[in-house]
UniProtKB/TrEMBL annotation:
Keywords: Iron, Iron-sulfur, Metal-binding, S-adenosyl-L-methionine. CDD domains: Radical_SAM, SPASM. Residues 47-282 form the Radical SAM core domain. The keyword Disulfide bond does not apply. InterPro entries: 4Fe4S-binding_SPASM_dom (IPR023885), Aldolase_TIM (IPR013785), Radical_SAM_PqqE_MftC-like (IPR050377), rSAM (IPR007197), rSAM_sf (IPR058240). It comes from Phaeocystidibacter luteus. Its cofactor is [4Fe-4S] cluster. This is Radical SAM protein.
Length: 337
């Protein structure tokens, strides 16, 4: 199931008492078949299941969102230009990763905190141009940000140099007051201005950049936009897609009131589709791991393929497939679709 199709299904059927569990079950069956195709059946050594790779430019964040699992006491690191080039070099020469559809510029930290953020984006663009010369399809570049640092000057540079294909924003709460309450240190007025400037340029100049938003809606508010503040609704109309979500516990990392019970799934698209490259070269298994508990290798010590196919990573896949999810500390409480 493509990421775009997931977006549409979640928007239409999230919280439906019958269809949502049915969709989850269908995804489980599909994931188990993919697991066999990519890791068990003949020819598996010539193909990789990864479709998205997350790059964490910076491990720190300028916000202190109430629902976030990021450990702000862990060492603050920025990805070096060498780590980025090492990853891109390996992507370029290993045909098994040429089916990667998207490079996501996010994990636990805020991407735009990187002191050389534009230089990093230019390096990625450099490799895109190399790929095109070799008739290789380069992954889409998607950046998720809290928007506080994406001031007009920076936004203009990113747009003028065509450095990303997609930009996503986190705008939680539904009203300016709830936004600032949930997203501690964030201020609605500059956020609204930053997003508005970017979206206006994209619309007026018909630039090929997709915009999306993600909004956490706390209970008991409904997963609709009708009740939201007019400025929230206005920004939503500027997005190509706006996903409304409930709070989740990041795999058990945070405590929630009325916590829903994790389903006993025997398949996981996140594990199949994702790898996350951290600033120091460590690779973890998926984007729910904000605090590096699922590290399965380091890019300075092993190749991307060796990490992908490592016993450490395959343990996660095998345990999930065999119904032993409860034995994986990182996964046992995960509720991701």
């Amino acid at each position: 199931m493509s990421a775009l199709n997931k977006e549409k299904l979640k928007e239409k059927f999230n919280e439906h008492p019958v269809l949502w569990p049915a969709l989850k079950k269908g995804q489980e069956v599909q994931s188990r078949l993919k697991y066999r195709y990519f890791y068990k059946w003949p020819g598996h050594s010539k193909r990789a299941s990864i479709r998205e790779i997350n790059l964490e430019f910076a491990s720190a964040c300028n916000l202190r969102c109430k629902f976030c699992a990021l450990d702000h006491n862990k060492p603050k690191q920025n990805m070096s230009l060498l780590v980025l080039r090492r990853f891109l070099d390996q992507w370029l020469v290993d045909f098994r990763f040429h089916h990667v559809e998207k490079i996501n510029l996010y994990n636990g930290g805020e991407t735009l905190l990187h002191p050389k953020r534009i230089e990093m984006l230019r390096i990625i663009k450099e490799y895109r141009q190399i790929a095109l010369k070799h008739d290789l399809k380069f992954p889409k570049i998607s950046m998720l940000t809290n928007g506080m640092l994406l001031r007009p000057t920076l936004a203009d540079t990113i747009l003028n140099e065509e450095l990303v294909d997609e930009i996503g924003f986190s705008l939680d709460g539904g009203t300016p007051e709830e936004f600032e309450d949930l997203r501690v240190n964030a201020k609605w007025a500059p956020f609204y201005k930053n997003v508005g400037h970017l979206a206006t340029r994209i619309r007026e100049e018909k630039l090929p950049v997709r915009l999306y938003g993600i909004t956490i809606v706390p209970e008991p508010k409904p997963l609709t936009k009708a009740w939201m503040h007019p400025e929230f609704q206005q920004l939503s109309m500027l997005f190509d897609h706006h996903e409304l979500r409930r709070l989740h516990d990041w795999g058990g990392e945070i405590e929630l009131d009325d916590k829903p019970k994790a389903q006993k799934s025997r398949g996981c698209d996140l594990l199949l589709r994702q790898l996350v490259l951290l600033p120091n070269g460590d690779v973890t298994v998926c984007c729910n791991d904000l605090n590096s508990k699922g590290v399965v290798g380091n890019l300075w010590e092993k190749s991307l393929w060796e990490i992908y196919n490592s016993a450490e990573r395959r343990k996660y896949l095998e345990f999930i497939d065999s119904g032993r999810k409860d034995e994986l500390e990182l996964c046992k409480d995960c509720m991701s679709f």
